[in-house]
Amino acid sequence: MKKVVVLSTSLRPGSNSHALAEKFAEGAKAAGNEVELISLRGKEIKFCIGCLSCQKTGACVFKDDVPAIMDRVLNADVVCWATPIYYYEMSGQMKTLIDRMNAMYPKDYRFREVYLLTTAAEDEKETPLRAESGLQGWIDCFEKATLKAHLFCGGVNGPKEIAGNPKLQAAFDLGKTV
After folding, report:
1. Are the beta carbons of 48 and 100 closer than 8 angstroms?
2. Does pLDDT of 87 surpass 90?
3. What share of the chain is helix, strand, coil (3-state, %, to 5)?
4. Domains in the chain and their CATH numbers?
5. How far is CA 67 from the centre of its chain?
6. What sign for the dihedral angle of Cα 3, 169, 134, 53?
7. Which class for 85: exposed (0-12), middle (13-18), buried (19 or more C-beta within 10 A)?
8. Phi, psi (5° rounding) for residue 102?
9. If DSSP states are collapsed to H, E and C, what string results for 44-101?
10. Fewer CB atoms inside 10 A, N or C side of the chain?
């Protein structure tokens, strides 16, 4: 059994990327894993100010929801990020969380497998590549971790537009492989 943390970064009700995150979590749970789905909706996540205090103390100067999320990520075997694609890039709140988890860099971490789930109105194969590249930059800071898979669902724009899309089953199946 693995500890799996799924980070859903969309703030929109009826989010298509959150629907993928839920299916991935269901699949991982069906495979016998301990799964926690964390939505950033309603979370307080302040912007990093680049003070680097976290590198000296191991903790950020801001007291918001990030330390609890970071603790879950540090102690997970598997981390799955889910994001909508905005302007051919990850959501701003995903990038803000990544920046704020700078305090993780010098710490010991358990995760080895990282997954990415993305959705976008555009459906070209290049649409999610910058988001994947941005996440890869974070993964590269954790040399024992690798991006295991990236599932992209294009052609979904409005809330809940992903309903009935075969990528939901693909997300469930991917979760079962964890």
Report:
1. yes
2. yes
3. 35, 20, 45
4. 3-176 (3.40.50.360)
5. 16
6. negative
7. buried
8. -60, -30
9. CCCCCCCCCHHHHHCCCCCCCCHHHHHHHHHCCCEEEEEEECECCECCHHHHHHHHHH
10. N
92 pLDDT band, cuts 50/70/90, is very high
Say which residue the tokens 């080895």 belong to: 112
SS (H, E, C) 95-114: HHHHHHHHHHCCCCCCCCEE
pLDDT tens, residue by residue, 31-50: 999 999 999 999 999 999 99
Q: Is the pLDDT of residue 124 over 90?
A: yes
CA distances for 54 relative to 73, 99, 110, 112, 157, angstroms: 16, 11, 19, 23, 37
For 38, the token pair is: 């964390």
> What does the pLDDT read at residue 106?
85
